[in-house]
Amino acid sequence: MDRLRIYTQGDILELVNTRHGETKLGEKVQVYHREPAPEDGITLANLKNSPAKFVLLGIPEDIGVRANHGTGGTASAWPAALKTLLNIQSNPFLSGEEILVLGHFDIAEPLDQSVTALRGKTAAIDLLVYPVIQLIVAAGKIPIVIGGGHNNAFPIIWGAFLAQQQALNVVNIDAHADLRNTEEGRHSGNGFSHALANGYLNQYRIFGLHQNYVNKALPSHIANSSNLKARYFEDLLQSQSICHEWQSFIEDLDSPLGLEIDLDSIENVLSSASSPSGFALNDIRRMLLHNRKKWSYLHICEGATKLANGREDLGTGKTIAYLVTDFIKNYLNSNV
To answer: Of 111, 268, 269, 308, which sees the most CB atoms within 10 A?
Structure first.
């Protein structure tokens, strides 16, 4: 049965490589102290009592990617990212006490592997994820969600909308728009289309959209919509400062805000849509560290350490860990 698996302190410490004279984040992070579970599911009632501001949550699945005819493997990112993050040094820059590691979703593979069945299963994942996001945001915490496919943007936005009773403005750092037709059924390519159609998403902005990945109709659709805006990667290549372009792109957006980072936007990061052309990792790090917005959530998705086609890159976990720690450090040090 699909479920949220909540971690214990023991689960965390099993992943920590202890060393004399050092303290790792995994020795300092918080875990959730369970309340008695009601028959109708979890409530996360004790979450608001945690001193941690950030709640780390994994969605290790690639069903939504395969439902979009992509290469499987994004389920592998969560365990690698978590282990890397937990073994970062606890120090004055980031102690670890700011983070509560909630757990991850156990999601069963459907017996039927047809595209139709995978899209049905993706819709079922939506129903599993959004109530948990709603509870986290309602508790005054900021979910940091590591996927998984980009299909999970929809239930994350849905849950945040319900918690805040207000449509979100979302910025997606991505080579793709993920605005495919909602009538296709759920998959990793139409999470934002569904969020817009349901009224959960107000302004949707894509930063770093590749011209090679847009169909003939999409540029005019974006240009003629008051809810959509894109900055093409090809234009950014001609800019003197990507960081300045980023700040200009988001400066007029009001809260509540969501931040999406699709790892296929970063050059040579292993994903179902890996590309030799894209942002450098340090470009994204600068954008996060220079950020002056308060985000309701961070979603990092589409990365993998091993793809179904046999390609491997164990560095993906470290890439994600850098992005997570930069996001948290900026938030804690910002006066906004």
So the answer is: 269
